[in-house]
Amino acid sequence: MSEKINRFLALLPDSMKSVVKKHSGMLDSATADYLAAELEDYIKKIRIKAKDNDNIDMLMIENMVTAFKKVIKLFPQLDDAEKRIASSALRYFIDSEDARLDFEDPFGFDDDLAVLNAALIALDLEDIVVQR
Fold first, then answer.
1. Among candidate residues 6, 2, 3, 17, the one with its CA nearest the CA of residue 114
2. Exposure pattern of 98-127 as b/e (b: 16+ CB <10 Å)?
3. Which end of the chain is more exposed for a tag (fewer CB within 10 A), N or C?
């Protein structure tokens, strides 16, 4: 496993590592387009759920989506290990039944934020880390 991927995984609690590893497939340019579309679909679902769920911090979610979109735009410049890190973080976010259930747990998106920020740090993109 590459040093960058190990760095990414080292930033995560054990409870999240297994879910991240499940989503660690490669991401080619076609899949980047697919994930961008999936990201848009998921944010629409979140917006609908947020109308009835005061626990969803839409400002944080919108900032996370903005960061994900920036990473997707960088894909042509990323090496294979970096693409794998970004892919894992994106897929983790889109998975509503990850380490914490996004819509049922009061802190359902905190784990997604942790995975995103760990990926951004591992990718040397600290300037777009999302604050809670």
1. 17
2. bbbebbeeeebbbbbbbbbbbbbebbebee
3. N
59-90 pLDDT, tens per residue? 999 999 999 999 999 988 999 889 889 988 99
Largest CA distance in the chain: 42
Q: pTM of whole model > 0.85?
A: yes
Nearest to 69 by CA among 128, 110, 5: 128
Under 8 Å between Cβ of 2 and 82? no
Q: How far apart are CA 56 and CA 126, in angstroms?
A: 24
Angle between helices 14-22 and 80-94 (to 10 degrees): 100
Burial of 88 (0-12, 13-18, 19+ CB in 10 A): buried
Helix, strand, or coil (residue 127): helix
